[in-house]
Each structure stands twice: as structure tokens, then as C-alpha cells.
């Protein structure tokens, strides 16, 4: 292995959040009647928080020994397997699955069935040197929303290579049945959130496959180590990262500038199938020996001196990617490096010609074989030596593919001066035929702002007849949504109820995508093809070499989607009209379509005519607040539901994000369009993260990175991020790779008791709004309002000695008030400017340092001077039904509660510390919440979860991109029966019902 290449096999520490694949705790104590600690007499019975016995959560599950009552609508796809063998399944994306509580628990703890430590191994495949099939394929991650770099698949019979793993890669591959479990190597063209945002989730998915899990080789420039260090914070001890970094070694202070580029490529993979080399691309400078060297090479580009001057001296602020304050004479920093990858396939040897061999006096036999192996032999009938060239047809050179990522103008300067690419240029003078290499295809990951420049276009033409595929964020690539199935569901929901499901933003981009270049501009460009979803370039067999569009999805048409829906469900026309009446008439519509349908599908309920409205909604406007459910699934992104993220739109006052799972930025862009999402990110005032599991925070770095870029020319404050302290370890480590421009606050400092003690020490006369109770997190003591006659109850939330109890019982970590209090003051100021009176975190029952949140709006004054209380939104995070949360949510305007499992899977919910649908509703009822929105559904329910309509009197099921304006809360439950109508013909297939085991 070359000296420039370092190989690191990193076993992530067990101190990380070991439950990121599946969170479990030691057996919990026996249940106690939770209803006894609640003051509200309307509590309808009790729900189970804990296992019924110390062994119930750890014993193996079997339908032969245990029976759960089925709901009438329970679907066959949600059944559990009887043993571990049946549980080892591979779904659409190749992820493993299991329903066994014990098996899941042990897997999460890094143990197999024999309690031996889990040891992920790299896949070992027997290579096929002949390789009858080989192609490149565009995996269109981020092309329609321009939030990440597209991924590229290099496919062989027995090997798979992926270049770049941006957010959404798993979701894209799930929809198109590309099995990520077959991937052997992942190569990063740059190490940043744009190219590697989907890597943590992918590694977690692979680690959950089978008994031992799978791992892959991850390759990148030397700053890859910073990304790996950051992932230690939340990837469990069961996962192992096989990382390989190359290029100059990075030190804490950065890398010394003015490095002379290496003249030799760095060979990463070299076997009988393919040779993959890396050419490190560092930002050039506009002065010194590099620019002098470049000036000597510009003659071959034949550019006017004015063009060279303009493009070689860019504005100072655009010189670097990550830090606009960098000095060009100082050091290179992590994130500055980019890579050009060259993939060379072995040549195809020519056919042996027996007639020529016979003419040269050879007899059929072993000498024929020797010649085919490249060895010379002596003629049997003549006194001559016969050489392979005498009897073999000319060999066909192996195809060559180049992947280029040139992110800035200064990288372009270095690219133009890179002598090591000389053998691949068609116009390089002085190359012997043996040294010249013909490039067949070049994938350009370079952004269009760089690739359209004359310097870049001239450089492209140096490769002769190579096929150029432009995959770098071009407007034409917006035409076809990447997630076609999800876009189809969104369009159908929009047709039925446009008030809660506004038209997705990408539809509005299609008109602007056409004609993105003028004819004169197009004539100046090198001939190329825009990348398309699933576009292929065949390398072998030789007869098929070239572009293949057979897998490219057709253009999604909104009118066709609507026509298809009306043909499939004719009742939807009347349903849409009836729903529209909710916004134009008082009460429930006089004429409804219920009688036209089976009573089992939709039934009118008396509660639909309820007119009780909380005081906070008096004179409310549509510009006050809107809740946008960007992601409503659990564990990992799926075909129809992204992972958790909730956008609280305060309109002119800014916005908040509650959790930020992978793909959050892409979802924002699908909801608001490209420009609208940028505006939303600019206006973010705070991001709150519930816990460290990957499905709740791995989209954070991408959001923060974009915000920094959007505001780099504007005076602004760092964004406030509130989360568990393990998240700070991740952000601190990741900050060495990219400047995230943020300020962190631990959730434990935003609990009611912490806020009261910290702020009163500094501002004894200040008034801070709190929920109407006090708490002691360590003992679980709850005190109700002064007027509440319920006696004080002391309860233990966790069994003695469990991880959760030891966490809350341990001595408090010292707090430096000089650090924390200024941040709390900043939080209070930011919230006040947004019209928020308080934001309070509430510990919940899921994993160590897991929280829910209570957001209370400031009071308003109506036209006659009457004081109107502010609305109150409560979000549960991931949790079992939790008394702390119930108390904190008293009188909530909206409770957004996780409902991972259907009611029949309560044991599964207990084993994984999640809630069932009915349990979530019970929490809302106990708290007296006005409206309940259920979210975070298991991916075993791909389109709509199982629920009992009898309990849904003030509840609605969330869907991705669902937008609930506070002015529309009164009609929210009325829409639910119609939503069920929309999915009345949906039945799970065996493929879609595969259980998903990942970070829940």
C-alpha cells in the first residue's frame, strides 16, 4: 500500500449511545397504576409503561405462546416471526429485520445469541475477473432538491462501489430496489455534509443485517478521520467503521499551504476486476509557483486573455468552501480537499486464431493455451518462435471512467494544472501509444456554476470523444422528483385536502427548468448529457457500451396523478368538495358521502360536530403558527416516510426545528421549493433535538452548513442548538470538518427546575413561565397545582440498577454558570423575538438523555385590550407513555406524540421504549390536549398505520409534508376519515411489510 494511504479499523467505543440501532434497557419494574398520579378524572383507565414482570421484556416472543388482541383493521404485514431465523429478512433496501425482543436487545448491545461480543466483518466475495456485466449508474440523491451531491454506482457481477453517500441515499435505493447490502466500497469525493450526510445511517443499517451485521470500506481524503471521530458519538459499540484515508496528514492546526501536487495517483483498489486511483485536488492559489506553472499550460486551452483574467482572479469571498475568513497564505483546512477518481478496467484480450497458429506450424495442444496466456512458444514444424501477437487478434483496451468533483474556482485552477492527468488527455503531445489512455465516460459532480465556465469547458474538451455526464445540481435535473412514490402520495393528498397538504414545491420548479440555457450559451459548451435518475453508462459487454436510459423514470405529471386517483377512487371527487366546506361553512357538512361507502371504511362520529375551542385560538390568524411534519417515520428513511423532523413556522417571526433526521433539508425543499427552503433556513431561530439516535439528528450538519453559507455575507448570530450533551460531542468533533456556526445548549439546562435555579440566581426578580408543577427528576416526585387535591406520589420510573435510573440518580455534573447563563439569556432573547414565552425540555422514557419539549407562545391582546393566552405545542420525542410529559402537556393546544406501533404490539413497544397508537392518544386525553397529532410510525406501516377510529375523536395521523396551520385545528380530526378513504385500496405486499430494525 502506498505510503500516502493510511488504513484505520475503528471500533467505536461502548460509551457512545449504544442503542442507536435499537434502544432497550434492563428489565423494568412491575407496573403501577399511573392513573393514580393524575388529577384529571377523565383518565380512561391506565396504560402500561413497563413490562408486566421482570422477565417479560426479555423473554423470546412467539405467537404460539402469546396472543395479542387484533384490531379489526390489523394487517397481515405487521405480524411477528416465531424465531430468529424467520426474523432475518432482507427488505427492499437489503436491511435486516427482526421482531424478537430478546434478539433485538442483544443485537443492540453488541452480543449474539451466545452473548459473545459482536464483531462486524467486511464482506469477502469471490471476484469474477471475466465480468460479463459492468456499468455506471446515477443514484439521483439530491438532484431534484440540490441539497446533496448525487451518488454514483459502479456495478460489477460480484462487486459494488458507490461514490458519495449524501442524505437520502437509503431512501432512493429503497424505492428503486437497489440493495445496499451488496456494497463493498464507498468513496467520498469530499468529506462534508453534502457528500457524506447519508453515511452514518447507511452504516447503521448495514450493521443491523443478520447475526453479525455487515460493514464496508469507506475511502476519503485525510479529513475523513474527523467525520469518523464525530460518528463515535452516536454509532453504537456494535458497529465498526473500516475507514481508509489518503493524502497529506492533517495536524490540529491544519495543513501547511503551498503544497506541490503529487505527480503520482494514489492507488486505492487494484485487483483483477478494477483499478481505482485517487488524484487529490486541493484549492490552488492566485499567486506563487502554482499560478506560474498554470500560466505555462494555458496555451493549450486557447482562451482569450480577458477570460483567463476574469476566471483566475475570483472574488475573495469565494476562494474557499467552508470558511470565508481564511487567508490564502495560511493553511489548508479540513473540507478543502476534493478528489478526482479514475476507474480503469482491465483490457479485453483478443481472440485466438487457430488458422494463424496452424500456418505457423503449431499443432493443437498445450501451446495454444500458452499463447493465450501471453507466452511465446516454439513452432512444432518450423524453426521459429511464435509470439502471442502472431496468433491473437488485437486486445480491446479496458474502459476508463473518471469522476470529477471540482467545487470552487480555486479547485479549478489546481485541476487545470494537474499534470498527473496527462495520459488521459486526447491532446497531450509526446505520449507513446502505450502510455495514452482513452477515457470513455466522465461523471461531473462539479456544480454547474463552475462547470459552465469557459476554463472548465475547455478542460472537458481535452478528453476527446469521452461521454460527459453532468450530475452537478443543474436546473434540468429538477424536472423529475427523486422520490417518485412519495411525490405521488403527496400529490394525491394535496388533491384531497390542499389545506393540510399544500402542493409540493418541486411541481413549481418544472416550468423554470425548461430552457435553462440559451442557444448561444449551449453552442459554447462541450457536448454533454445531463444526469438523470438511474441513467446508466454500460462499460461491458463491449457491444452495449454507451448510455442507457431504459431505467430512467418518466416525467411525473401532476394532472396524470390526479386523473389516476379519480379513476381509482371515484369517491375522492365528492370527498374533496366536502372537505373544502370545512373551511367555508360552520359545523359538519349537511350532505356527506358516507352513505356512498361501506360503513366499515368511514363512519360519521358525533364528536365531529364538537365546537369547543380553547381560548388561545380566539382571533387567531393564519400568520401566527404552522406545524409542518417533514418526516413521520421511525428508524430509517423509507419509500413513503422520511425520518423525524418537525418544522414550526412562525412566519415573519422566524421558525424552529424539532428534531432533524437525515434528509430534513431535502424535505424542506420539497415542501417550499428551492428558494423557499433557503429562506426558511435563513430564518431559523432554534433547533431542538430530542435524543442522540441517528434518525433524529443526522440531518443537522447539512442544515447548519447551508445556513452558514447563506448568511456568510450578512451579519448574524450563531444558531442556537438545544440537545442532549452527547450531541455536543458529535457537533464539536464535526466542527473540525465544517464550520457549523452554532451555539449549543444542553437539554438538561432547559428543564423547568434547571431554568428556575439558573435564571433566578442571576435575575431574582425575573419572571419565567413554567408548567404548573414542580419536579425532581432524580426521584420522580410530582406535585400538582395548588388547587389539585391529589396527594403527592413518589414513583420510580425505572427498575433498580437499570441504566436509566443510574443516569438520573447519579450526582449532578458541575455546571459553569458563567458559560450556561449567557446562553440561556441568548435563548430567552431569541425566543422572545419569535413570540415564544418559554421552551422547556421534559425528560421522557426512552434512552439516557431523551427529552420531550413544551413550547408556549406569548400572550396576545385583542382589539378591545383583552389578554389572550398563547398557544402551547408539546412534542414527545421518542418515549413510552410518560407521567412527566402528561403533566407538562396539561392543556396543550397541540400534542405531537410518537405512535411507533399498533395497539396489538404493546410488548414490542415496551421492549423498544416506544408507544402504541392508543397509548399516545391516552397521554393526550390525560393531559387534556385540544388536538393530538400522531407521528414516528414504524416503517412496517409504509403508507398509513393501523389505528382504531373509536379513539380518534381529537386526533389525526401525520403524513410527510403535512402542514397544520393553527387556524385550522378545529377541523383537523374531521379530515381523518377522508384520509382513510384515500388509502382504502392499499394492502401491504410481503415486500413492503418487512420489519425494519434500525435506530429506533
Automatic annotation (TrEMBL):
Residues 52-122, 765-788 are annotated as: Disordered. This is ribonuclease Z. Residues 142-198 form the tRNase Z endonuclease domain. It comes from Kalanchoe fedtschenkoi. Residues 62-78 have a biased composition (Basic residues). Its EC number is 3.1.26.11. Coiled coil: none annotated. GO terms for cellular component: mitochondrion. It catalyses: Endonucleolytic cleavage of RNA, removing extra 3' nucleotides from tRNA precursor, generating 3' termini of tRNAs. A 3'-hydroxy group is left at the tRNA terminus and a 5'-phosphoryl group is left at the trailer molecule. SUPFAM superfamilies: Metallo-hydrolase/oxidoreductase (SSF56281). Keywords: Endonuclease, Hydrolase, Metal-binding, Nuclease, tRNA processing, Zinc. Its cofactor is Zn(2+). GO terms for biological process: mitochondrial tRNA 3'-end processing. GO terms for molecular function: 3'-tRNA processing endoribonuclease activity; metal ion binding. Residues 52-61 have a biased composition (Low complexity). Belongs to the RNase Z family. Homodimer. Pfam families: Anti-Pycsar_Apyc1, Lactamase_B_4. Residues 79-88, 106-118, 765-776 have a biased composition (Basic and acidic residues). InterPro entries: RibonucZ/Hydroxyglut_hydro, RNase_Z/BN, RNZ2-like, tRNase_Z_dom.
